Amino acid sequence: KAGVTQTPRYLIKTRGQQVTLSCSPISGHRSVSWYQQTPGQGLQFLFEYFSETQRNKGNFPGRFSGRQFSNSRSEMNVSTLELGDSALYLCASSLGTGLNEQFFGPGTRLTVL
Amino acid sequence: QKEVEQNSGPLSVPEGAIASLNCTYSDRGSQSFFWYRQYSGKSPELIMSIYSNGDKEDGRFTAQLNKASQYVSLLIRDSQPSDSATYLCAVNIYNTDKLIFGTGTRLQVFP
Fold first, then answer.
1. Contact indicator for B19, B63 with CB cutoff of 8 Å
2. Tens digits of per-residue pLDDT, B49-69?
3. HSE value, Cβ hemisphere, 13 Å, CA-based, for B28
4. Can you give the pLDDT at residue A60?
5. How many Å lie between the alpha carbon of B46 and the closest alpha carbon of chain A?
6. Which pLDDT score is estimated for A40?
7. Cβ-Cβ contacts under 8 Å, B30 against chain A
8. Residues of chain A positioned with their CB less than 8 A from the CB of B45
9. Taking CB atoms and an 8 Å limit, are B32 and A90 in contact across chains?
10. Is the bond into B10 cis (omega within 30 degrees of 0)?
11. Own/partner pairs for A40-46, CB < 8 Å, 24+ apart?
12. Among A95, A90, A91, which Cα is nearest to A51's?
């Protein structure tokens, strides 16, 4: 089975721009969760989508949003980028029935200049 | 109090020794617990999951869970230099797919 894929792997943007990141889960997995990883804060939960619905949300501003499509693929959008948004953005997929193991993709490294 | 706490390390052990990594959590409603390994520049890789009190063994890895003490640990037997990485403890909030991560413990295994 193919693993979780994320595109693009690297992005460089400037302050004020917006960015869209994409995640394709493992086949058969219906839940996609997004995390932000920075050296200072570690891994922080952004949100989780299941069957095209946002099921859980972390403590991030409204500039961070996401969506999930009927094929379970998910996108994450960050608008009005700030320098502090520079981070590794990770998505993880699971079966989505609760208590499930989550498997991470390789991540997208976002640098905001 | 942080929801999931780990000692940041580094924890240095000689090759062949047992490495013991510890994690405490604050939410008594937590139902599932995971250990991830993360090499520098890579994404987290799931190595163990545990749901019930007691020990769970998988090869050289043993996860231990004590819900009464809100404590979960990972033992790595016969540690190898290739085990040198950051180990992340993650706790699943009841009936959700939201994982709360600790900040990780950096393990160094020296020859």
1. no
2. 999 999 999 999 999 999 999
3. 2
4. 96
5. 7
6. 84
7. none
8. 104
9. no
10. yes
11. A42/B101, A42/B102, A42/B103, A42/B104, A43/A90, A43/B44, A43/B88, A43/B90, A43/B99, A43/B101, A44/B101, A45/B98, A45/B99, A45/B100, A46/A76
12. A95
Q: How far apart are CA A112 and CA A99, in angstroms?
A: 35
Q: Do B97 and A107 touch (CB under 8 A)?
A: no
Any B CB within 8 A of A42 CB: yes
pLDDT tens, residue order, chain A (113 aa): 689 999 999 999 999 999 999 999 999 999 999 999 998 888 999 999 999 999 889 999 999 999 999 999 999 999 999 999 999 999 999 987 766 899 999 999 999 99
Q: Do B43 and A106 touch (CB under 8 A)?
A: yes
A-B contacts (CB, under 8 Å): 64
Looking at residue B1, its pLDDT comes to: 64
Indicate the residue of A88, A96, A107 with minimum beta-carbon distance to B97: A96
Smallest Cβ distance to A42: which of B92, B98, B101?
B101
